[in-house]
Amino acid sequence: MSVSGLKAELKFLESIFDPSHERFRIIDWKPDELSCQFNVNGDELLIIHCNITESYPSTPPIWFVDSDDPSLTQVLERLENVRRSSTLLLQQLKRLICDLCRLYNLPQHPDVEMLDQPLPAGLVSQDRKHGTTDEVTSEEEEEEEMGEQDIEDLDHYEMKEEEPVDGKKSEDDGIEKENLAILEKIRKNQRQDHLNGAVSGSVQASDRLMKELREIYRSQSYKTGIYSVELVSDSLYEWHVKLRTVDPDSPLHSDLKVLKEKEGMDYILLNFSYKDNFPFDPPFVRVVSPVLSGGYVLGGGALCMELLTKQGWSSAYSIESVIMQINATLVKGKARVQFGANKHQYNLARAQQSYKSLVQIHEKNGWYTPPKEDGKKPYNPVTELELGLEMEPELEWTLMI
């Protein structure tokens, strides 16, 4: 679908569910994302986000909600079963509103039936005013004759080549050429895997990770060298993140300078791995090197942060915000480089075991809640130990360092 066709869909939605609608509201939209509110009871508003992929409607939109309620997760997962069509977004939204009304025992709103109507001709023609009628008709007929894979290829071409008509920046603006090449390589690999029947991951996770990677490449923190990101074996589902800059007044900053002199390494290497259900589950993050003490780093290199557990995670969090929070947490936890330590003590198996033990402890006893004026802090291990909680000896020893 062309950008103009998608914008016509979005404008049609906004005309029905405006910000004052009694049940469902379109708060904001762009060609690649949609922000909505579902009014549960007048006091409770459910915030819902939608990421629209480049290859829409061949690839369905990705929905997520600011809630950990498993019932809401199931509602969003059922949207994947909506039959593909040229107005997939409208049909998914109809299903979403109907399912939410059932979930909260609310009457079905009559406006949802309007989503079955064809798009008003005025909206479509208005968004296509930059092209001739013959060109538009030819484009539609050609897409109808093409297979799903060809439509996907056409979508990639249109999204790259079509000039913005409303002054909004292209999604590739602000990204260096070498990083654009990485994004294009990922897309080609995904397309080839699809043709070979060797697809890994999920459409939902892959599209969200592509969006996260694009935002990182565009960010100032990345461009100024605070951190860097590399894909492990060209996999979108495993990243190496190097924290290159920490608070210059911290002992960790001094340790990294010494580390560079001794070993030629001036960064903290983190491994991020993602599952198929990302962004509904957090990434698994561990320190690979150097070996650290303090900083809320557990045995094997796992990190003791509520943010990285299902309990503390939100699908609305960006990966860059997670990276920057880890950076701040290491400094706040007074992390120090353990020079001369056994480098093999950090590995995936030990990190997973430490993380599993951590989650079990906090599911039973909760997390440390800081004073409101201090904001939301990472977990405080001293508080846990003072409570006399039972934990594995290895985990307890690690926390006490």
TrEMBL record:
Primary localisation category: cytoplasm
Stretches with biased composition (Acidic residues): 136-153
Taxon lineage: Eukaryota, Metazoa, Chordata, Craniata, Vertebrata
Keywords from the UniProt entry: ATP-binding, Cytoplasm, Nucleotide-binding, Transferase, Ubl conjugation, Ubl conjugation pathway
Biased composition (Basic and acidic residues): 165-174
Entry's localization field: Cytoplasm
UBC core domain sequence ranges: 204-368
Enzyme Commission (EC) number: 2.3.2.23
Name assigned to this protein: E2 ubiquitin-conjugating enzyme
Superkingdom field: Eukaryota
Source organism of this protein record: Megalops atlanticus (Tarpon)
One GO CC annotation: cytoplasm
EC category name: transferase
